[in-house]
Design a protein that fits this description.
Helix content is 45%, strand content 9%. It is mostly helical and 497 residues long. The strands form four sheets. Strands 4-3-9 form a three-stranded antiparallel sheet. Strands 1-2 form a two-stranded antiparallel sheet. Strand 3 and strand 4 (82-88) form a beta hairpin. Helix 3 (126-146) runs antiparallel to helix 4 (157-184), helix 3 (126-146) runs parallel beside helix 5 and helix 4 runs antiparallel to helix 7. The chain is globular. The chain binds benzoyl coenzyme A. Benzoyl coenzyme A is lined by residues 131-132, 135-136, 139-140, 143, 170, 210-211, 230-231, 233-234, 237, 320-324, 327, 329-330, 339, 381, 423. The site of benzoyl coenzyme A (BYC) has 26 residues, from helix 3, helix 6 and helix 10.
Length: 497
């Protein structure tokens, strides 16, 4: 490689007078032979400073000079793909890692079923494929932007570290999609990669593409609900893209799923620990009635009905991320072999082409919920959503076990699929969590019981005070049962600078 194209030891301005030392080809953990791919290096060279600038401006506010105990993906060997150590976030080694190539892999579904998986972009599907990569990529920086103010109100150093772990890994997931854009989509890929750093969550003029990624994540309960429910959409979508006939996309997504598991763990255990603290405080003071909200809140913990309302909000917003239940885009993404169903390759019972297959979709017809047999192809989004709803239940069951064990009569449930939806079959209809179609008037009477109301948000806000001493936890959340990478209870997960 010529000196001009070597990206070692370069100082890059990242806005104002901030300089970050980068050694691009050496410091990026990768298994894509980056060092010998001149074109890709050149494209990354112009994108990377913009990424660092975005991270400084839109990433976690404060803490950029703090040493954080982070996991860094350094390879794809299941036995040792990551290493742990203290790192300042702007120096995190965001890498480009693809799951190992499966020799002889064929396309498992759609009209190209049985053909060899594509190693290059199939020309006839270029625009659709690029759109899928861009939508996936857009969600990653969006979530970092949504969470950027949470550090200042973290309930512990352990949680602060987990937040930053999720943030840097979402950053790496952006890299994974940018790699595909820069490597396979030429000039328009470079433009799309640039635009991924320009759209901003919640911004009026240039918002993020999908609705839920423009919502605020104003508090830690929202963060835990987001990482349990919305990162699980990430899991489902990545799993569907991991089935792709475009092999580089499949391999990227397969590796991203490895990291995604920790994000959902943060969500599940975050809610779990919130429930632990609530149940312990209620039992300690002898409060039996979970609806005695005034008494429960006076203990500095979050009442269970409020937890349910928060869960309702996040479940509905996340269900919208699956797109319309009946979608010609979805059908085309499947038929063209770009995006499969959940666990497509191992699904039994149909031909994976689905030209004659049907699928039951619930629709609202004349004010009633009616199940209709639709073309399975056009109902591909509906099916993924149904699979997602099943997948959500495991953690909810574990939360309920804790409540039950504490002897408190309360169950967290999933609201009906059509509750509070803005996209798809149920959009424009008022449907209760129990699945009744309501009048506008009735909805407004009841909505404060089903979704977080102003009083709820004020109360949560009042609890969001930083608690950043070693081994200390805010009143509303219990300590974790085990430390990250088996660290002891008083471990200093973040050395705050
Ligand atoms: N908000 O036929 P339709 C993650 C658009 S999360 C706004 O209904 P389609 C993560 C749609 O783009 C996973 N717009 O649906 C989690 C389309 O626009 P165009 C992210 C929406 O296209 C946590 C039009 O409406 N990955 O990784 O079959 C933290 C008609 O669309 C929405 C993916 O989503 C919405 N909610 O499916 C960090 C995978 N829904 O194209 C990360 C890639 C739809 O006509 N994306 N629209 O201008 C896809 O597979 C599909 O684009 C969708 C939509 C499933 C999103």
């Amino acid at each position: 490689m010529s000196g001009a194209e070597t990206l070692t030891e370069e100082s890059v301005a990242v806005g104002g007078d901030r300089f970050v030392q980068i050694q691009l080809d050496e410091s990026i953990p990768n298994n894509v032979d980056l060092a010998s791919d001149r074109q890709l290096l050149r494209a990354l060279k112009s994108w990377h400073p913009n990424y660092l600038e975005w991270w400084q401006d839109m990433g976690p506010e404060g803490f950029q000079n703090s040493e954080v105990y982070l996991r860094t993906a350094v390879g794809v060997d299941p036995a040792g793909w990551a290493k742990f150590g203290y790192v300042k976030m702007p120096h995190y080694r965001w890498g480009i890692l693809l799951a190992p190539k499966v020799e002889g892999r064929t396309i498992a579904f759609g009209r190209h079923k049985g053909e060899p998986a594509w190693q290059e972009v199939p020309g006839e599907y270029r625009a659709l494929l690029r759109r899928l990569v861009v939508v996936q990529g857009d969600t990653e920086p969006a979530s970092v932007e949504q969470q950027r103010f949470l550090g200042k109100i973290a309930p512990s150093l352990y949680d602060l570290r987990n937040l930053f772990q999720v943030n840097v890994e979402e950053g790496r997931h952006l890299w994974a999609m940018v790699y595909l854009l820069l490597k396979y989509f030429g000039r328009d890929g470079r433009e799309e990669a640039k635009a991924l750093l320009e759209r901003q969550s919640g911004q009026q003029d240039n918002p993020r593409i999908l609705g839920a990624f423009n919502e605020r994540t104003p508090d830690w309960l929202s963060f835990f609900m987001f990482t349990y429910f919305t990162d699980r959409d990430g899991k489902m979508q990545l799993a569907a893209l991991a089935e792709s006939g475009f092999d580089p996309l499949s391999r990227s997504c397969r590796f991203m799923l490895t990291e995604e598991a920790h994000h959902m763990f943060v969500g599940e255990t975050g809610v779990q620990r919130t429930i632990d603290a609530t149940c312990a405080a209620m039992n300690k003071t002898g409060i039996k009635d979970p609806y005695d909200v005034t008494a429960v809140r006076a203990l500095g913990v979050i009442d269970l009905p409020l937890l349910q309302r928060k869960a309702n909000f996040h479940m509905a917003a996340t269900r919208d991320l699956f797109g319309s239940e009946i979608s010609s885009n979805g059908a085309e993404a499947f038929s063209s072999g770009l995006k499969g169903r959940f666990t497509e390759a191992s699904l039994k019972g149909d031909d994976h082409v689905l030209l004659d297959a049907s699928y039951a979709v619930t629709r609202v017809i004349d004010g009633k919920l009616v199940e209709e047999k639709m073309s399975a192809l056009r109902a591909i989004n509906c099916r993924l959503l149904d699979d997602y709803i099943v997948d959500c239940q495991g953690g909810i069951d574990r939360w309920n076990k804790t409540i039950e064990r504490a002897g408190i009569k309360f169950r967290i449930t999933q609201p009906y699929k059509g509750f509070n939806r803005c996209i798809g079959e149920f959009a424009g209809h008022r449907i209760s969590p129990a699945g009744e179609v309501l009048t506008e008037e009735r909805w407004h009477e009841k909505v404060g019981e089903w979704l977080p109301n102003e009083g709820d948000m004020k109360f949560i806000d009042s609890l969001m005070k930083p608690c950043l001493g070693r081994a200390q936890y805010a009143s509303w959340i219990a300590p974790p049962r085990v430390g990250i990478n088996s660290q002891p209870g008083d471990f200093e997960y973040v050395k705050i600078a």
